[in-house]
Amino acid sequence: MPVPQVATTEEGELSFASISPRTFEQLRDLIRAESGITLGDTKRDLLVSRLARRVRQLGLRGYDDYYHYLLCEDRDGAELQQMVNFVTTTKTDFFRENHHFEFLRDQAFRQWRANAAATSDYKLRIWSAACSKGHEPYSVAITLLENFGQRACWDIKILATDINTDVLRSAESGIFPIAEATCLPRAIRERHFMKGTGRYRQTCRARDELRRMIAFRQFNLTAPDWPFQRRFDAIFCRNVMIYFDETRQKQLVARLSEQLRPGGYLFLGHSEHQTWLANYVESLGHTIYRKPGS
Ligand SMILES: C[S@@+](CC[C@H](N)C(=O)[O-])C[C@H]1O[C@@H](n2cnc3c(N)ncnc32)[C@H](O)[C@@H]1O
Fold first, then answer.
1. Can you give the pTM of this predicted structure?
2. In the structure, which protein residues have their CB atom closer than 6 angstroms to any atom of ligand 1?
3. DSSP labels for the chain?
4. Which of 162, 189, 248, 290 is catalytic?
5. Whether residue 26 has pLDDT greater than 60
6. What are the residue ranges spanned by the domains of the chain?
7. Which of 14, 75, 95, 136 is most buried, by the most CB atoms less than 10 A from its CB?
8. Known catalytic residue: 61?
9. What's the CATH number for 7-87?
10. What is the atom index within ligand 1 of the atom nearest the CA of 91?
């Protein structure tokens, strides 16, 4: 028996609560092709909950119309980008998985100082490769400033990228709800953030010194061409690989490893450890990896 494409309520109103299996397949293929994100069969309700408002906003009758709209009317790809923005999971926090920042402070810096003393190369390049709303690159920048801040000779830059243009806009503003910054020690909060006033009083903003260290760019980790000229000393690619299938995960790790300088560090999310990672990087424990060489 054919499944109705658009469900109706008893009163005959359009319902945005369900999606046909075929349209779900079509939309998830588009999402996978565009972003690498793989939605399993159990993610139907999730997709519906994330797209319902958008479909209504566009005045469409349901998800099959939305798919048609994406294929035939979205000439500049703006709607496809919107859909990716809606379906990405963007949960993040300051100093999430804090042991990574402790490792930066206690071990990576020691190594970098020794390298710089030996080579007179005082450049440090760090990439936050799925930065979401910016908590991750700002946490890296705070750790760097707190440890290298007084050393004028260092040239430190952080590249922060994400596929989602909404989170990037928010990250670049450096503005955060005050509640999200309460987990930071008071001294750190006061040194690196300004409290908003008036209608911004529930927010705080990263100080210029911090913001100047970070360049935000849109970048899709599954893009065929990677435009980087210089290798990175450390890459944070945390809690994004879990949304990709294993083939894409392996491709991603191979490319991240290529993008690291020998001895550079790769930080992955807490549930992203895989035995095959050993083909590309050596494990230092606690989802911290190192590219062989020095
Ligand atoms: C759960 S957040 C992780 C944020 C941060 N790395 C952390 O661990 O707190 C996942 C992020 O990956 C981004 N993302 C998903 N697919 C991506 C892709 N193909 N290229 C770049 N970023 C992607 C999402 O937009 C989202 O902001």
1. 0.93
2. 35-37, 88-92, 96, 130, 132, 136, 162-164, 167, 220-222, 238-240, 243, 269
3. -PPPSSEE-TT--EE-S---HHHHHHHHHHHHHHH-----GGGHHHHHHHHHHHHHHTT-SSHHHHHHHHHHT-TTSHHHHHHHHHHS-----TTSSTHHHHHIIIIIHHHHHHHHHHH---EEEEEETT-TTTHHHHHHHHHHHHHHTT-TT-EEEEEEEES-HHHHHHHHHTEEEHHHHTTS-HHHHHHHEEE--GGGTTEEEE-HHHHTTEEEEE--TT-S----SS-EEEEEE-SSGGGS-HHHHHHHHHHHHHHEEEEEEEEE-TT---GGGGGTSEEEETTEEE-S--
4. 162
5. yes
6. 7-87, 99-176+207-290
7. 136
8. no
9. 1.10.155.10
10. 1
